[in-house]
Amino acid sequence: MSAALQVTAFGLTLLSTLFLILATCTDCWMVNADDSLEVSHKCRGLWRECVTNMQDGVRTCDQYDSILADHPVKIVVTRTLMITADLLAGLALATLVLGLDCITFLKEDPCVKLKMCYGAGVILCAGSILGLIGSVWYAVDVYMERAMLVSHNIFLGVNYDFGWSCWLGMAGSTGCFVASVLLTCCLY
């Protein structure tokens, strides 16, 4: 039972870590259509902003200024939290690989292997919480930006939605949290 639980947690951790890394690297955190005719599709991300012409499929991207330049708080905080979550999830994944029963590393000391799995679960929990805070922070800020435009009657057909990168970050963080619960609570 323990080996099956470890392999399940490993698979979920691997998939969730890939989701977190993909969410951090891709640039579709906020989607908006510039007009009601939906001639163009704009994605804003953590690193750049891309516009896709819906008629001919041409995509142009504008890189943000230097990382050291002044950026909105939502971008800086989300970048920091997501990169930290990526690093913690990667560390937890490496620790979990070494702690699996099917790996011959430290085969003669199962107590240490169990502690490694438990430690991986704790590290994964911290990474998942940071990733979830970063993803939700960005989503709430997008919602507040849209609500402010509507309340000031500036809403001119611009539609703000959460992009697939934001959803991917939330899914990856949730998967990491579930894997950490499996490793910390169910493994003993």
Automatic annotation (TrEMBL):
Subcellular location: Cell junction, Tight junction; Cell membrane
GO molecular function, one term: structural molecule activity
UniProt KW keywords: Cell junction, Cell membrane, Membrane, Signal, Tight junction, Transmembrane, Transmembrane helix
Topology within the bilayer: Multi-pass membrane protein
The name this protein goes by in its record: Claudin
Transmembrane segments: 118-140, 162-187
Organism annotation: Peucedramus taeniatus (Olive warbler)
Role summary: Claudins function as major constituents of the tight junction complexes that regulate the permeability of epithelia.
Principal cellular location given in the protein's record: other
Signal peptide interval: 1-33
GO cellular component: bicellular tight junction; plasma membrane
One Pfam family of this chain: PMP22_Claudin
Family classification: Belongs to the claudin family.
